[in-house]
């Protein structure tokens, strides 16, 4: 039971990170109807920028952990958001009204560009950083000597996710920009006729998605204590899996799917085998889609004949 | 109206440079690396940063000038009529000319092992492209995990040959059948899925196969792969320096090139077979049903076409060709490992199909030559190679979203076969 | 043998809480043209989708009887089997051709099942057996016949997506006829046609009925077409049948007029009396 509780905590933390990335996929899909294959690599760039800014802050002699974290978060969100904007501008906008496969391949190309850019610019080796947030709480002392731990970093990851999720949900549901986004999702031509700046709204969607991916990248850095140029691919696929599982286009669905993938992966590693955790996640995706072809919270597609 | 004032161009270029400065400030301006004690250290590279920003500034001026020179009409208007005619003429004879050239490659480049190896590689991708073309180009089903069937073919041959000692020519059809079987296996769950759901499930399937290959150590050799895969024989006669080897039997002086040339003709024959079967299938009801499926699935159902069977045969046929190519790959390399079957391979083959112009056999062949050949050209760039490849993919898609060959040839005609503009051709929902 | 080809028995179709079709029953005679009319949103296309298998009805039965006596329960057949075995063909309200294929290719696709058999499930075709080549030639001949019938023989090698609207409508009918159906269901074939084109359409449908013995079920808004060619008219409103009979009977039925004008029955009766 204790072991189970521990895995539950670990799974939720991992799931939060996947959920943050998944939101970016789902938002972009909702508004332009394409898989932003480069999104996983945007997440990786976010992690790198957080890592570099951490090094710079440390070398300036800064020691106050909250300040370091806040500055890291803001810098990586800001710069990564610009990456998201640039990617849309260069690789997707010229293909907006093109055939479906062209933007997808352009996105795959962009994904190669970003991961290899990181490799060329920062080297292929793993970048470890010392733990920034340490300590934790023992929730329950088990009779067999197994204690259920909740570390501070896990609290930070989950709380940050919750706060940002709330913030962006508010942004999408209550503000002018959010309303424009939802309008473009429904009907771009009509939205444009009603005075919505479609280009700007789409750019904005990519910016938000990239900013959230940057948060996920930083949380990954803090939680695992390292980044590498290849981490975007696997995390990206899993986050996209999460978005599809939750029902692509749905924000709560993305978070739900992220948590589901995180939990599946953690429990599978804990009870079956670590090697096959990804196989488990992907297999469950396939099984879910067979029975729920539009995901957990996706709207069923009504066939118009 | 385009603003042609220099001030406008400068403003745009400065803005691009500013964006580049922010983007690259940390990623290029600073370089991190694990120091002697394992702790990360960093040093500055402001010189590189300045160079890159300057390149972006200059580059955006050039792009802006080019854009104004070409004008809003687009590049198409620049092609004069006589050039278009010439291109049409070349287009008609390009296929036969390429085929003739391909047959002569081992004769022309007999002494150049590197070129022969490269030609074999290109032909392998031509074959993979033609195989995937059945699924993506004809049936309009998006498959991001095609490499899985390539892997199934390669491992089938490797395991059958190393475990049971079966020869290449017996294993080749078996590898194809096994891959087709896996194609059907994948096809079943994804029958109901459309578009991006299909894309992600096929991608997941490809990854599952790769992960199983890595982790099922007893069966597949895990990350170390399988080595000592038998090389193909000349229909039973080994291509070795032995007494009963190919060279000795035919009274030739032994040369390792014999095997390379033989491999070249094997893959050429396999690729041509793929092409011939595909062209043939297009003119048969099954091929027409694939294309009709791509055009309108609902109408197909109303015409009594069994969608399930049609989709499954498309998956199986494409997978079978992938399996053949995989078996060839295994026998050529003599060694295979899961590393050869990553998502990048799937993306590369898909890029070949889309760049070729979906459904066009000649286009796919040209795209394979361009992509693999281009990729080899940049071999010297080492780690920059994938970067260049990524940029090439993005630019090619922007330049020709519908691929090199922008029309579809009808499969049957009454009086005159007229090419159909690809603007009319759908690309499927699947 | 004459008699009925199609019997719809207490057919209901619900989408969530909305009842699109409610306990609808009607029959279609063999070798006759039956029209299904009614105001927009009356549920006509839903009935079509149930008959042709795109929707599974919530309740009710749809019986189809061939001339040789073989019977089919359409509500239980898979969509493609309805065309393949029960021989029901249909067209769509918003034309669904294969736009990137030529007119001829469209008609070849329609003969898929026959050609599939002739090609020995592809294998005979792959080796180029002569039996396959003859079958293919016969298919081309049948397609040619229909292209001539609908006046599109000169455009046989043009992409279907390039044809003008009226031609596309006729090509879709030709494509449906190439499946050699017993029952042809046409969803608003005259929509968007001008007077001359809809006149030609009427002639085409009449000749299909008389020369091929194909029974026709048709949804149509163009009353001139309905009145001119229908043998029997079924009127729907809000998912139920409100009237049926010959075109003349239906035209004079106050309930029908009320449904079309949105007035209630009494007012319609009054209007008719003052009008006539």
Describe the model:
The complex is a heterotrimer of chains A (305), B (430) and C (276). Chain A contains eleven helices and four strands, in the order H-H-H-H-E-E-E-H-H-H-H-E-H-H-H. Chain A has 305 residues and is mainly α. In chain A, strands 1-4 form a two-stranded antiparallel ribbon. Chain A has a two-stranded antiparallel ribbon with strand order 2-3. In chain A, a hairpin with a 5-residue loop joins strand 2 (136-141) and strand 3. In chain A, helix 1 (2-32) crosses helix 9. The longest helix of chain A is centred in the N-terminal third of the chain and has 31 residues, at 2-32. By secondary structure, chain B is mainly alpha-helical. Chain B folds into two domains: 6-77; 109-421, ABC transporter involved in vitamin B12 uptake, BtuC (Orthogonal Bundle), CATH 1.10.3470. Helices cover 67% and strands 4% of the residues of chain B. Chain B contains 16 helices and six strands. Chain C has helices spanning 44-51, 79-84, 103-110, 112-118, 123-126, 130-149, 165-178, 195-212, 223-229, 247-251, 254-261, 265-275; strands at residues 4-15, 18-29, 33-37, 59-65, 71-73, 88-90, 183-187, 215-219, 232-237, 240-245. In chain C, helix 3 (103-110) packs across helix 6. Chain C has twelve helices and ten strands. By secondary structure, chain C is an alpha/beta fold. Chains B and C meet through helix 10, helix 11, helix 12 and strand 6 of B and helix 2, helix 3, helix 4 and helix 6 of C.
């Amino acid at each position: 039971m204790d072991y189970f509780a521990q895995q539950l905590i670990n799974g939720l933390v991992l799931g939060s990170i996947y959920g943050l990335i998944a939101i970016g996929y789902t938002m972009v899909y909702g508004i332009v109807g394409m898989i932003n294959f480069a999104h996983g690599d945007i997440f990786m760039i976010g992690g790198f920028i957080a890592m570099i800014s951490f090094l710079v802050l440390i070398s300036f002699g800064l020691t106050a952990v909250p300040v370091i974290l806040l500055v890291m978060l803001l810098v990586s969100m800001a710069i990564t958001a610009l990456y998201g904007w640039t990617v849309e501008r260069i690789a997707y906008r010229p293909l907006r009204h093109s055939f479906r496969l062209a933007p997808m391949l352009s996105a795959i190309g962009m994904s190669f560009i970003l991961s290899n850019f990181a490799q060329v610019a920062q080297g292929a080796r793993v970048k470890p950083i010392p733990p920034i947030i340490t300590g934790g709480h023992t929730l329950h002392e088990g009779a067999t000597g197994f204690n259920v731990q909740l570390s501070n970093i896990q609290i930070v990851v989950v709380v940050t996710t919750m706060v940002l999720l709330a913030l962006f949900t508010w942004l999408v549901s209550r503000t002018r920009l959010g309303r424009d986004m939802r309008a473009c999702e429904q009907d771009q031509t009509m939205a444009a006729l009603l005075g919505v700046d479609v280009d700007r709204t789409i750019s904005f969607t990519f910016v938000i998605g990239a900013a959230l991916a940057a948060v996920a990248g930083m949380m990954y850095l803090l939680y695992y204590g390292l980044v590498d140029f290849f981490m975007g691919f696997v995390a990206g696929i899993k986050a996209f899996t999460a978005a599809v599982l939750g029902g692509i286009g749905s924000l709560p669905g993305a978070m739900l799917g992220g948590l589901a993938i995180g939990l599946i992966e953690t429990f599978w590693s804990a009870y079956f085998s670590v090697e096959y955790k990804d196989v488990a996640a992907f297999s469950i995706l396939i099984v879910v889609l067979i029975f729920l072809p539009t995901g957990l919270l996706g709207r069923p597609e009504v066939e118009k004949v | 109206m385009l603003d042609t004032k220099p001030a406008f161009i400068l403003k745009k270029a400065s803005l691009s440079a500013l964006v580049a400065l922010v983007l690259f400030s940390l990623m290029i301006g600073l370089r991190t690396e694990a120091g002697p004690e394992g702790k990360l250290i960093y040093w500055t590279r402001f010189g590189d940063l300045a160079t890159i920003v300057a390149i972006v500034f200059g580059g955006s001026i050039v792009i802006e000038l080019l854009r104004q020179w070409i004008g809003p009409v687009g590049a198409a208007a620049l092609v004069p009529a006589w050039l278009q005619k010439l291109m049409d003429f070349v287009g008609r004879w390009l296929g036969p000319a390429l085929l003739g050239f391909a047959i002569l490659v081992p004769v022309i480049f007999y002494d150049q092992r590197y070129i022969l190896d490269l030609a074999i590689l290109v032909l392998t991708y031509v074959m993979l492209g033609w195989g995937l073309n059945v699924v993506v180009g004809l049936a309009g089903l998006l498959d991001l995990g095609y490499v899985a069937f390539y892997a199934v073919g390669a491992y089938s041959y490797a395991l059958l040959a190393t475990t049971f000692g079966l020869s290449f020519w017996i294993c080749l059809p078996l590898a194809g059948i096994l891959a087709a079987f896996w194609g059907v296996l994948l096809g079943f769950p994804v029958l109901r899925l459309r578009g991006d759901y299909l894309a992600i499930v096929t991608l997941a399937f490809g990854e599952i196969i790769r992960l199983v290959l890595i982790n099922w150590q007893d069966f597949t050799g895990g990350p170390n792969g399988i080595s000592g895969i038998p090389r193909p024989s000349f229909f039973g006669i080994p291509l070795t320096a032995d007494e009963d080897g190919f060279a000795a039997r035919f009274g030739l002086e032994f040369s390792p090139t014999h095997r390379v040339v033989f491999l070249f003709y094997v893959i050429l024959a396999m690729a041509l077979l793929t092409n011939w079967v595909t062209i043939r299938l297009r003119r048969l009801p099954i091929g027409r049903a694939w294309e009709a499926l791509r055009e309108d699935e609902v109408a197909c159902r109303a015409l009594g076409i069994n969608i399930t069977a049609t989709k499954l045969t498309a998956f199986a046929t494409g997978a079978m060709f992938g399996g053949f190519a995989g078996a060839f790959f295994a026998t050529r390399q003599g060694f295979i490992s899961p590393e050869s079957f990553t998502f990048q391979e799937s993306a590369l083959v898909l890029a070949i199909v889309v760049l070729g112009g979906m459904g066009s056999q000649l286009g796919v062949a040209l795209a394979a030559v361009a992509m693999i050949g281009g990729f080899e050209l940049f071999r010297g760039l080492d780690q920059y190679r994938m970067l260049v490849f990524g940029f090439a993919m993005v630019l090619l898609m922007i330049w020709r979203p519908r691929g090199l060959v922008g029309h579809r040839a009808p499969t049957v005609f009454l009086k005159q076969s007229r090419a159909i503009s690809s603007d009319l051709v759908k690309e499927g929902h699947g | 043998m004459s008699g009925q080809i199609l019997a719809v028995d207490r057919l209901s179709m619900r989408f969530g809480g909305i009842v699109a079709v409610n306990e609808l029953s009607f029959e279609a005679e063999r070798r006759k043209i039956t029209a299904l009319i009614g105001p927009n949103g009356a549920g006509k296309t839903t009935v079509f989708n149930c008959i042709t298998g795109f929707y599974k009805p919530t309740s009710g039965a749809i019986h189809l009887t061939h001339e040789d006596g073989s019977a089919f329960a359409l509500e239980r057949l898979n969509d493609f089997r309805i065309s393949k075995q029960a021989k029901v063909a249909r067209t769509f309200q918003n034309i669904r051709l294969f736009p990137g294929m030529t007119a001829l290719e469209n008609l070849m696709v329609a003969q898929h099942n026959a050609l599939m058999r002739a090609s020995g499930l592809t294998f005979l075709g792959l080796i180029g057996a002569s039996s396959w080549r003859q079958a293919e030639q016969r298919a081309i001949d049948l397609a040619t016949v229909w292209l001539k019938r609908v006046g599109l023989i000169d455009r046989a090698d043009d992409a279907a997506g390039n044809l003008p609207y009226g031609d596309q409508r006729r090509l879709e009918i030709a494509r449906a006829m190439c499946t050699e159906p017993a029952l042809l269901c046409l969803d608003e074939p005259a929509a968007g046609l001008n007077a001359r084109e809809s006149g030609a359409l009427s002639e085409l449908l009449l000749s299909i009925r008389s020369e091929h013995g194909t029974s026709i079920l048709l949804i149509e808004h163009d009353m001139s077409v309905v009145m001119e060619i229908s043998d029997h008219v079924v009127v729907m409103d809000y998912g139920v049948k409100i009237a049926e009979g010959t075109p003349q009977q239906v035209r004079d039925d106050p309930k029908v007029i009320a449904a079309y004008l949105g007035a209630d029955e009494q007012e319609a009766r009054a209007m008719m009396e003052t009008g006539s």
